[in-house]
Structure formats: C-alpha cells, structure tokens
Specification:
The protein is of the alpha/beta class. The chain has one domain: 3-Layer(aba) Sandwich (Rossmann fold), CATH 3.40.50. The strands form two sheets. It has a seven-stranded mixed sheet. Helix 4 links the parallel strand 6 and strand 7. It is globular. This is MT21D methyltransferase. GO terms for molecular function: methyltransferase activity.
C-alpha cells in the first residue's frame, strides 16, 4: 500500500500551483525542503533562461525544482535513488498538465557511471544536497563527470549551524573550489517572497582547463 502522503502546493507566477505529494514517513528525500522552494521560485524570476534547455536535477527528492523548471519550458531529467522513483513519478504525473518542456525521472547514484546522462546538460540543479560527509566525494565526482565547460550548476542550500553541519559545508566548498568557480547570487535577486537570510543560491561552473 502507498504510504500516507500529504500534498504541498507551490504557487506559480504564471498559472495554477504545483501539487507536490510528500511522504510523512521515511528519509530526507520525502518532504519539500525550504531550499527547494527558494530555488524553484528563483527559477521563475527568469534570471536563467530555461526554455528548451537541457536540465538535470540531482537529489531531486519530491521533484519540486525540476518540475518547476519543466513548467518554464526546460527539458528536465530529475534524478534520485531507486526508493524515490515512485514519489517522483507521482509528482510528475500530478503536474504534467502544467509542463511546457518535458520531465522524466531516472535513477542516479552519486559517484557511479553517468554515461547515460551525456552530453552535459545546460543546467544542473541541486537543492540541499550537502548533509552527509560520506556523500561529498561521490557528489563531487558526479558533478565533475556531468559538467561540460558551458554547464551552469545552481546549488541552493540552507546554512545549518547545528553539530557537524558547518564543518561538512566548509569541506564541501573547499573541495568544490578545486575544479569549480563559485559565485553567490545576491539575496535581492531571489524571489521577493521565497527568500531567507540562511538560504544561499550559488552558481557554479567548471574552471577553464
């Protein structure tokens, strides 16, 4: 039987809200995190032209960000682990009438082969993907394997001050800066309502070789 889900509505500027099913029980991938809302709403500002662009979301969870990109005309692949595929499919199905590009879900385990996701996408989207120390190296490998010289990565994360979080964040950005250039998108360019001092959006691209 399907686990009890609850629906989160995410308003859109240009039409009916997205309806995102979440799971009440289970791991981190099952709810729409604030960083996902902030990134989804940032995409709607039009700062990054998405129409007909090739977009890949990593650690998509409920699919909120990727589905929003698809409503803005992007051709999107939302990726996450096997156990989240069913939830992703449900949310794609529930919102497919709003999609003007295309959206599909695929399994992608960080650190593993990414041949089937080539050629490199125009954009990679990541919301709140930094929380376990063990996942940093595989995530960075995946980012390096997926990005071409013209790929822009949009990474949105909530700065957390508890426990090991600051240390993990610091390590992540240190490792990232070996191969990538990072730029922070100023808060005044975020959606005027969906923004927070603790939630940051970075744009990341490969250093020229």
């Amino acid at each position: 039987a399907a686990m009890a889900g609850f629906v989160r509505e995410l308003e859109r500027r240009a039409g009916p809200a997205l309806r995102l099913e979440q799971r009440a029980a289970g791991g981190v991938g099952c709810v729409v995190w604030d960083a996902a809302l902030v990134l989804a709403k940032f995409l709607e500002t039009g700062a990054c032209p998405l129409a007909r662009r090739h977009v890949l979301e990593l650690g998509a969870g409920t699919g909120a960000v990727g589905i929003m990109a698809a409503t803005l005309g992007a051709n999107v692949t939302v990726t996450d682990l096997e156990e989240l595929q069913e939830l992703l499919m449900v949310n794609i199905e529930n919102n497919k009438h709003l999609v003007t590009g295309s959206v599909r879900a695929k399994v992608l385990k960080w650190g593993e082969d990414v041949t089937e996701f080539q050629p490199p996408p125009d954009y990679i989207l990541m919301a709140d993907c930094i929380y376990y120390e063990e996942s940093l190296e595989p995530l960075l490998k995946t980012l390096k394997d997926l990005t071409g010289p013209d790929t822009r990565v949009l990474c949105c994360y909530e700065q957390r001050t508890m426990g090991k979080n600051p240390e993990i964040e610091r390590k992540y950005f240190e490792l990232l800066q070996r191969d990538f250039e990072l730029e922070t998108i100023p808060l005044d360019r975020h959606d005027e309502e969906y923004r927070s001092e603790d939630i940051h959006i970075l744009t990341i691209h490969r250093k020229p070789t």
